[in-house]
Amino acid sequence: MATKKKVLLKVIILGDTGVGKTSLMNQYVNKKFSNQYKATIGADFLTKELMVDDRVVTMQIWDTAGQERFQSLGVAFYRGADCCVLVYDVNVAKTFENLDSWRDEFLIQAGPRDPDNFPFVVLGNKIDMENQRVVSQKRAASWCQSKGNIPYFETSAKEAINVEQAFQTIARNAIKLDEGLVFPIPPGFQVQPEPTPAKTTCC
User: Fold this and answer.
1) Three-class secondary structure of residue 114 per DSSP
2) Name one GO cellular component term (predicted).
């Protein structure tokens, strides 16, 4: 039997405080969600092992604080990243408007060899609070297209909607970085769940 290739990927999650970065990571890695909000201090990471084609992939997912005082975590933190995930809250316009700043911050700090083709993935989180939405799918998709067709998913860390699919795409795009080819946006990437009643808890 042929030995399966092993790959270690470093993934950075960026976005404003409170958009659900930690919740998305915990839902994907631990299949858990907590209503108790606790701001991340500095940075932390979890690891997840998965199979992508013939590769055993260990994904090191770095969760970062969204507060301004933690935005400049240092070149060493960003360097070596294989993919950057930009997260916003579909119910808070400012978190979406700040994606440009987060993307620019990453490119400046990480200094990737080919910034025009570096793989980003955008996640619009908290779609379980659908009747509070202020950022439309069309607006988000248009922004992603303007930045080079960045893959875009709408997610709910609370309801585990599109979380697994999003991180599979993140892993595939990160792997393809080394081969000089990024996977295109998968069909149906904007699949939307049935509307749910308003939730008062944070996700």
Assistant:
1) coil
2) lysosome
